[in-house]
Design a protein that fits this description.
The protein is α/β, with parallel strands linked by helices and about 170 residues long. The protein is built from 3 helices and 9 strands, in the order βαβαβββαββββ. A 6-stranded mixed β-sheet has the order 4-3-2-5-6-7, with helices on both faces. The longest helix has 19 residues. It starts with a strand and ends with a strand. The structure holds inosinic acid and magnesium ion. The site of magnesium ion has 4 residues, from strand 5.
């Protein structure tokens, strides 16, 4: 039996997103901005963050996946869905659910960086900073997570638990 332990409440999430949205709104002022949702895990965060930013942005989506499920997995990241938007000369904010080893985001940053955006920044709801294997600059981080595997608010384990309103630590149990 899996055990869920609430780690971050829906109220804490809402309050943090309100603050992130305000910072992003102030930082980009009236500059055109492309916000990129990294599917699938960031989708719920993205929807709330857009409303907290409180101004028009061009929204777009991309999807990446790591090969297989090996623990080391290195930098084996595959692009499954690419942007529709031409980001050359534009400010781009990548919105992700969680940065763990950093390999996925490093891959996204390297790829989008080749397309000559005016700027490229990362907003991640959760940051497992201590597990980083490659450097990633997270300009806007929601919460630092110290340990454990987390689910809920878009984050899944084997496609489960995305619907939960709070973020929980998943203990797969015995
Ligand atoms: P990274 O490439 O190791 O940084 O992995 C990032 C991706 O792994 C995230 O976008 C998630 O899809 C997934 N991931 C890493 N840690 C967790 C977790 O605790 N819960 C759910 N998904 C996670
Ligand atoms: Mg993800």
């Amino acid at each position: 039996m899996s055990i869920l332990t609430e780690l971050i409440t829906r109220e804490q999430i809402a309050e943090r997103i309100r603050a992130l949205g305000e910072r992003i709104r102030n930082d980009y002022k009236d500059e055109p901005l492309v916000t990129v949702c990294v599917l699938k895990g960031a989708v719920i965060f993205f929807a709330d963050l857009l409303r907290a930013i409180g101004r028009s942005t061009t929204i777009d989506f991309m999807r990446i996946a790591s090969y297989g499920c090996n623990v080391t997995r290195e930098s084996n990241v595959r692009l499954l869905l690419d942007l529709e938007t031409d980001i050359a000369g534009k400010h781009v904010l990548i919105v992700e659910d969680i940065i763990d080893t950093g390999h996925s985001m490093r891959c996204v940053l390297d790829l989008l960086g080749t397309r000559n955006p005016a700027s490229l920044a990362v907003c991640a709801l959760l940051d497992k900073r201590e597990r980083r294997e490659v450097p990633v600059d997270v300009a806007y981080a929601g919460f630092v997570v110290e340990q454990g595997f987390v689910v809920g608010y878009g984050l899944d384990f084997a496609e489960g638990y995305r619907h939960l309103e709070a973020i929980h630590i998943l203990d797969p149990g015995a």
